[in-house]
Amino acid sequence: MFRMLKCFIALIVLPAATVQAEPDREWSYEPSPSNLEAREWFRDAKFGIFIHWGLYAELAGAGEMKVEAWVMQNKRIPIDKYERLADFFNPIAFDAEEWVLAFKSAGANYVTITSKHHEGFAMYDSAVSDYDIVDRTPFGRDVLAELKAACDKHGLKLFFYYSQLDWHHPDYYPRGHTGQGYTGRPDHGDWDRYIDYMNAQLEELLTNYGEISGVWFDGWWDQKGTSMEHRWRLRETYELIHRLQPQALIISNHHVEPLPGEDVQPFERDLPGENTSGYNPMDVSQLPLEMAQTMNGSWGYSLVDDEFKSADELVRTIVAAAGRDSNFLMNTGPMPDGRLVPENVETYKEIGRWMQAYGESIYGTRGGPISPRPWGVTTQKDNVVYVHILDWSDTELALPLVADVRQATLMTGGGAVRFEKTDAGYLVTLPADLGDGPVAIVRVELDQGPFTQRTE
Prior knowledge:
Elements: H1 2-13, H2 33-45, E1 47-51, H3 71-74, H4 79-82, H5 96-106, E2 110-116, H6 133-136, H7 143-154, E3 157-163, H8 191-207, E4 214-218, H9 228-231, H10 234-244, E5 249-253, E6 265-268, E7 289-294, H11 311-322, E8 326-332, H12 342-358, E9 366-367, E10 376-381, E11 384-389, E12 396-399, E13 405-410, E14 418-422, E15 425-429, E16 440-446
Parallel strand pairs: 1-2, 1-8, 2-3, 3-4, 4-5, 6-7, 7-8
Antiparallel strand pairs: 9-10, 10-11, 11-16, 12-15, 13-16, 14-15
Helix pairs in contact: 5-7, 5-12, 8-10, 11-12
């Protein structure tokens, strides 16, 4: 009976397709004061945890590819078969507070979780669909509500990932370059009705869970062609979000230049300015930045993926991102029973110990006055520049600093560092022992600051 009621609600919320106005390619977006404040908080936060969790976690060993969140597509599983996963999705070991405390142990300041991935299954109690964790699983609990309560209790902010792409919904038509030929959906649909459905779910997420820090979009890239921002009715969607929660940051992983209404520019599996993955051909904007990377090779949980990155490697990524004035969003895929991967939990603790000791050089900083170099990066805060040495074996390091240096100390080993002014800046003589951690840090105090002009 309840499912029938929800379907009736869906019919009310999702009107028939309407004729859309001519696209306004130059529509402007003026962020609210609370949004601008949220952007500064975001830039200060520097480190977040990404969570990919859904029905796909149950098929963790089903594919050769390591993007296990894509198992429905990779294994071409029809909808009527895939839906059966919901019948035995019962993560009885899920403990939101345990999760949040683990994330805090790493030194993270925020969490981004998949509210709906490409499979179309909602990990919360949706009123416009019964294809969700509360209505279709024996678990019957709202994961997002519990996680939000735990985040609020322990001082972490919460973002909701939402997939615009949907392999399950019948009105996601015409199909993009994924979800073709195997799902069992009819070869017709009402695209505008799908967008209405998407916006209705977003309205639920922005009204039922208190203050949300942002929405992280993915899947826009599935549809190819011109004027795609208008096909997706982005202006309508973005204005909905900013109207309901003006402070909420919109982050869209669409792999093109930032569009009006967006507040953060993301980079997938790459540092800003790099494109080793092929996903990031766009220029780096002036918006706050964030790069996302996995802790092994998979976004969702994988039973067979043991290629875990070490804590040292992940710390170096945090540092490399901060030196590019970017946050690092570090992904984990919880297990089907609701537990975090044990190897990840241990890595959180190791990262957290480093962040507790040296977080001064990361949190609240901006990209330093020296642009990234082969040897490392710099960050800055007020009149202090933190020189992060990632790859350097010589005893002297040239720093093209314009301002006068007052003193320099080695944070990772202790003691003063000798420096000499030159025509090109300063020559720093490094101690023989830089410490045994993943990064050596020289704390350079300048006579004045802050400095925003970089030396290229």
